[in-house]
Amino acid sequence: MNLRKKLNILQCCVRTCVIAFVLAATFSIFSCSQTNGTVLIWTGRPEFTEYAELYNSTHSDLKIIIHYRKNIAQSMPPAQDEQKPDIIVGEGFTEAQVEKYFMPLDYLFSDMYITRQQFYPQLLDSGFISGKQYLLPVSFNVPLVMFSESKENLIPDPYIIDIDQIRDISANFNKTNKSGSYTSMGFAPGWNPEFLYVATKLQKVGFTMGADNFSWDAQKLAESVKYLRSWTEEKNTSTTAEQDYKYKYLYTTETKWISEGHCTFAFSTSDTVFRMDDESLNGLDFRWLSDDGEIPLEDTILYMGMYKDSKKLKDAQKFLIWFMQEKNQKEMLEWSRNMNLTIKDFGIAGGFSSVRNVNELYFPIYYPLLLGNLPQKNSLRANSHILPERWISLKEKVILPYLTDAVDTTKAEPQASSLETLYAIWRRQYY
Fold first, then answer.
1. Beta bridge partners of 119
2. How far is CA 133 from CA 42, 108, 114, 324, in A?
3. Which pLDDT tens digit goes with each residue over 295-348?
């Protein structure tokens, strides 16, 4: 087991212990009073224990209780013998679940408790189903590439970079020895399957999943695969050369790939990078991955809604409105920082806030790398609808393996039928 995997396992263990401790403390304090004056939140996000503690420390008339649910979508509906939630914070709901179990929140806007203008419209629209606003977005993340500050002058735009620029700039740093082996390689698309997936999003392949179907734009997918294969063949010789270089030089973290000069670019996401400590990010810079000025959001967007059968809707509404206030999210950022947890969190519930002013006014204070380089409001591109919980499994077991195999230049270019075959196998196993 390599060092990175060991560190990841250690971090997960530490975080699990912290979550267990905080949840235990929450239950011990509030489990004796679960009638009037309490609001029960179901969530799989451990940060909400911190937000509940902040709320409870500043309010005497209402207390928030957190029940941790690892897979919220699978937990719906509540069992008959368990206490029903008042608020649900999660991701991966189907549209049928949303309409059946959540209460429409449009009245909050008409009564001016909160405004549509405070949110990124793309995110807000994704929680708008069948003509009603059932869910409010909480947080989101975006893809990026890291590089050394010393190479900043090579990138013309101060905010974004597209895959053509990554391909062309990185190729200038490729070097081989007399035997033809690479001693320096700027970047390879196949080093990270997630980059291959984001590349298809940038080229609008449109992978999507409905109630019982999986679809995509076959022509766009073929074009994406052709583009990525030609990148490897024209700039890096072959997939074999790319993987040989990775195994020889890129055996540490992505930040060290850059800081030690082994490559020009490294792919990552906002939630990964901004959880890192300052020392790891020293000397590094980044750009948001983009195509035609659009930055694709990561698939997973966190949402908040009120459970339709809650008996405490007015109390639940109080917390929901409190949570979405700009000044309160500023307090959440400060509260999280002051807790000094071993595992650092990013932003609001692990991502950028859905409340635009919070990102623009306060995030650069806590994350200096974001100063002057926040994702612009009109540049964000979200999925047209919520991706269901099964999507994570489908992506990991169908899309990523297909793309990894499809761009492998040692193999013949695959037919679209191979993706359909992988989906059929996954579907039989899932159901």
1. 355
2. 20, 10, 13, 15
3. 999 998 999 999 999 999 999 999 999 999 999 999 999 988 887 655 678 999
Interval 61-81: pLDDT, tens? 999 999 999 888 888 888 888
Token pair of 282 as six digits: 């020293």
Quick one: residue 357, left, alpha or beta (phi over 0 = left, psi -120 to 50 = alpha)?
alpha
Phi/psi for 139 (5° steps) reads: -155, 165
Residues 355-381: pLDDT tens digits? 999 999 999 999 999 998 998 888 999
- Confidence tier at 6 by pLDDT (50, 70, 90): very low
Q: How far, rounded to the nearest angstrom, does the alpha carbon of residue 132 sit from its chain's CA centroid?
A: 25
Nearest-angstrom CA–CA distance, 370 and 357:
14
For residues 89 and 316, what is the distance between their CA atoms, to the nearest angstrom? 12
Nearest to 327 by CA among 317, 316, 335: 335
CA distance 220 to 300: 23
Number of Cα atoms under 13 Å in the Cβ half of residue 51: 25
CB atoms within 10 A of CB 89: 27
| Cα–Cα separations (whole angstroms), residue 358 to 56, 119, 287, 310, 332 | 22, 10, 20, 30, 11
